[in-house]
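If you are new to this repository, start here. Below is one unmodified record pulled from the training split, so you can see the exact layout before writing a loader.
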Amino acid sequence: MTESSTPAAPDGHVPLPPAERGGWLVALGLGALGIAVLVAALTGLIGSPQTDLPKTAPPALPAAAVTPVPSAAQSASVLAGAEARAGVSGAASRPRRGGPSGRSAARRAGGPHARSAIVARPSPAQQSLDARRFVDQTETQISTRWMEGFYPIYGTAQSTFGVNWLLLASIHRQESAFSTAPSTYHGLNFAGCCGGPMQFNVTNGPVTTWQLVSDSYRFGRRPVAYDHMMRTHPSIYDDFDSLMAAAHLLSADGAQLALNGAAWAAAYDYYGHDSTGVTYADEVLARAIGWSQHGFCINCGVSSAMIEAVHAAYGAPVLRALTVATAARVTRPKA
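And here is the target side for that same chain:
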């Protein structure tokens, strides 16, 4: 009896090797999860240094400002100040350093009624672009979390220089949409003259506007932590340095806690002595007064009725004077 050389059939109870499909699905899932975590870390959704900053509330509001109404006394006061500053346009008295406080230093810069009249004299083309830019800035939507880093700085600026923080915040909104404008923290603006959260001029001079007040940060206590803290000081790109300098400049130009004609004139000086500067000051003061009456609102628009009231009380007489002066120059016979 011979044995068959035919191989035995496979045992039917031997299990088949497991399918690899499940393992591949698990590996792909873990890979996708890792990529998602990496993207979140790179984009700041997790591990952002901003999460380390304490949450803060806006400073307490000063007393609510009344809606301005035209009066001969107010118009004459603002107009006289504007004409006096226009007569020495570009000549600035430097706020001194030292002394018991930044506020007193600002007041000593030429006497209690002095105006530093720091004016960049923008060209008509720049004025037109600025008019559009100011509208764009005020239409930008800002998050509450973004604003929290500015509140301690606003409070320090107010207590140091005696300037209403709502006026400072309104200019901050007007100039760089609370530092959200694309070029806020690098380079200069479209005109190639100004930079930083408060758009300080670093090209006029021989002593630039920024140089006049760049050391203002020395008068107040710097917060322990805030966004965009630069390594060297002063810097127009540092939030604290820039906002303190702006508050010092406004104080030197006569602004105090009251949101009145003096605040309007300081805002007018901040931009420049021209028709766009009138519109600028009208909007800045109207926004600040609205906040004082209804509470600080990051993304609320400026009431057109309030702008009209501010313009009638403060802007209109200055604009009329500018129009008359321009017409006189045009019709003046050539020598």
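Two things worth knowing about this chain: Residues 56-330 form one domain. Residues 155 and 216 are 15 Å apart (CA to CA).
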